[in-house]
Structure prediction request, 370 residues.
Amino acid sequence: MKKDVLEIRLSGTGGQGMILAGIILGEAAAIYDDLHALQSQSYGPEARGGASKSEVIISHEDIQYPRVTRPNLLLALSQRACDAYHSDLLEDSFLLVDSIRVKKLPKGAKYKIYKIPFCKIAKEITGREITTNIIALGAVNQVLEAVTFESLEKALLKRVPKGTEEMNLKSLYAGADAIKNYKDK
Amino acid sequence: MKKDVLEIRLSGTGGQGMILAGIILGEAAAIYDDLHALQSQSYGPEARGGASKSEVIISHEDIQYPRVTRPNLLLALSQRACDAYHSDLLEDSFLLVDSIRVKKLPKGAKYKIYKIPFCKIAKEITGREITTNIIALGAVNQVLEAVTFESLEKALLKRVPKGTEEMNLKSLYAGADAIKNYKDK
Prediction:
């Protein structure tokens, strides 16, 4: 990881697997990449409204303030999540949205926006949307270079159900490829 | 919940499901009991050493300081976890240990200790230790009265795999019963 600290916010609707994606990223960083990590979910009124977020802080040092305040990256898989959480993004940060689910983007944004059809890619790979979170995780890590993909693979394989390993690995790298091949339209 | 704020630390070895137990408790509080909750895992060197912890803060108000510093309760399912995390416990707090896995208890403790064979109860109920975390969760909630059992049931059923609902509900209430019927030896 090049930066000293990375603050990452993964958001969507409940049931889109944002917590699992955050746990895998945190474990990749701390257990396999020898970094410090803190992964958290705070639930307030917006959780009852259907928006869901999961946060990961990754650092070379012990993490003193455990709350994400200036995210380097926001992933938003739903319009409601994008609306609720984009306002903290700074100039040199990144917004990754599901291009099919998030049609209304923040106006006048000075950060880089990636519009990627995560849920469509998931359907192409698995026939269902279930691995959307893992595709998004691959994209997030390709943008930030937060952890090595070797560590991310290990953490992923420890957390996904038996029999789904290959599907999840394909999803992870499909997400990374979506960033590598990204052309802004 | 009677207290204004509860700080709860669930610890064991990696793979004992402490994160899932924390998530279920946090969701029960925030989504079904109309409280605020924050659930987190921080990974440092002890994660690589095999101790694993998951923390939950539950509050009637918005949570300002998101780190557990004075836990009202520590659950320790392994000796290593008990050794690593018991020192923050205050006088009026609770320590719940797996009585088979944790043989060496903190000396001179002024808090209440419950010694319960969580993993043995799990084997009796399911033949395997897989639901030890849910049994412990039932016990934790029985001690603290953190959330209603109605909400805890709902949150549990949303998170466990299909087909395991009954086994998990039985485990939850077996944990609660272990506290209700507890006799200190």
